[in-house]
Design a protein that fits this description.
Layout: H1 3-9, H2 11-22, E1 29-33, H3 37-52, H4 67-74, E2 80-83, H5 92-102, E3 111-116, H6 124-135, E4 140-147, H7 155-159, E5 162-165, H8 171-180, H9 185-194, H10 203-226, H11 228-242, H12 246-268, H13 279-288, H14 291-309, H15 314-327
Parallel strand pairs: 1-4, 1-5, 2-3, 3-4
Helix pairs in contact: 1-2, 3-4, 5-6, 8-9, 10-11, 10-12, 11-15, 12-13, 12-14, 14-15
Pfam families: DNA_pol3_delta2, DNApol3-delta_C
Domain DNA polymerase III delta subunit C-terminal: 251-326
GO cellular component, one term: DNA polymerase III complex
Length: 329
């Protein structure tokens, strides 16, 4: 990532970071928080390059020509450490190794930087251990904590860091980026809308889960419209076996919400669809339901999401939702 890219995607963030670099007044710790962790991580790499860059003019940092910039870019700079969750959490011994490393002078310069990905996954002991480093930074150091949930970080860590909030990218921009990364149009469209969910799966498993879940929703929506008596059977055989916990059910409800929104968009002639490969089915849905019916179905799904958050029995919730979707009211 470069300044112009960051400027186009996150103009406020770009301005704040550039001014800190140009004035040579970088804080010792940042927290980058927002929904798109990949974007935040790339911005963390950019600020680390600017921090370590040998260019004498602050306005030209990072220069991308000096050895410091090139090694940070390549991911092999000895004075830049990246910490990621070990399994489900970031553990105290990982932070301990970081602190031990930072007790020594930099190998390439007097500066050291570290990035902590998914910082909200630090255990309490790891977070308390890190707090010591933030309270008493050792030499010229820069810490960047990347998180998707600021509220899960210790308040004492937040208070000792400068928080930079990244605005969510538009669905169109997220979809375009995913397609640039090699995703198919239909997968990019749905992933752009549900983000990094489910959060407990790796990239390959998440893709497989989304493909299957998407197909279940398409089939169930078709049964609701054309063969209502079969919808409850499909609910038991496919929905409840795929969407098995509250997080996954919530995602499934989001997929339903996008389906009915797409049907409404189809009525209006819009092309920014979550299900771009299902245009014929969406046209059928749109033809058979009025705008008010589609709006009512969207309200019904959103109400189901609220009930789910209130711990209503998921099976009863879904059965009630099916009835409302069939009625379109």
């Amino acid at each position: 990532m470069e300044w112009d890219t960051l400027q186009s995607e996150q103009p406020v963030v770009s301005r704040l970071l550039q001014h800190a670099v140009w004035r040579e007044r970088l804080p010792h710790a940042y927290i980058f928080e927002g929904e798109v962790l990949d974007e935040q991580f790339r911005a963390a790499g950019l600020i680390c390059r600017a921090f370590l860059c040998n260019e004498k003019d602050p306005g030209e940092k990072p220069c991308n020509q000096c050895s410091e910039c090139k090694r940070v870019w390549a991911g092999n700079h000895p004075d830049v450490t990246v910490i990621r969750p070990d399994g489900l959490s970031i553990k105290k011994d990982q932070v301990g190794l970081l602190q031990k490393e930072f007790a020594y002078k930099g190998m390439e310069s007097t500066k050291k930087a570290y990035i902590i990905e998914e910082a909200e996954k630090m255990t309490t002991s790891a977070a308390n251990s890190l707090l010591t480093s933030l309270e008493e930074p050792n030499g010229e150091t820069l810490a960047v904590l990347v998180t998707g949930n600021l509220h899960f970080l210790l308040p004492t860590i937040v208070s000792r860091s400068q928080v930079i909030s990244f605005m969510p990218l538009s669905e169109e921009k997220r979809q375009a980026r995913l397609q640039e990364q090699g995703e198919t149009n239909e997968l990019a469209a749905i992933k752009a809308r549900i983000g990094d969910k489910p959060t407990d799966l790796d990239t390959k498993e998440r893709t497989s889960w989304i493909v299957q879940g998407r197909q279940v929703v398409i089939q169930l929506a078709e049964e609701v419209l054309k063969r209502p008596p079969q919808a409850k059977l499909l609910l038991q055989e496919k929905w409840h076996t795929h969407f098995i916990d509250r997080e996954s059910i919530d995602i499934g409800l989001d997929l339903f919400l996008y389906w009915y929104r797409d049907a409404l968009y189809t009525k209006w002639g819009r092309e920014d669809l979550a299900y771009p490969d299902q245009l014929e089915r969406l046209k059928t849905e749109a033809f058979n339901r009025s705008e008010s019916m589609l709006a009512a179905n969207m309200r019904a799904v959103m109400e189901a999401k609220r009930y789910l958050a209130a711990n209503v029995n998921p099976q009863l919730l879904m059965e009630r939702l099916l009835l409302r979707l069939q009625e379109g009211s």
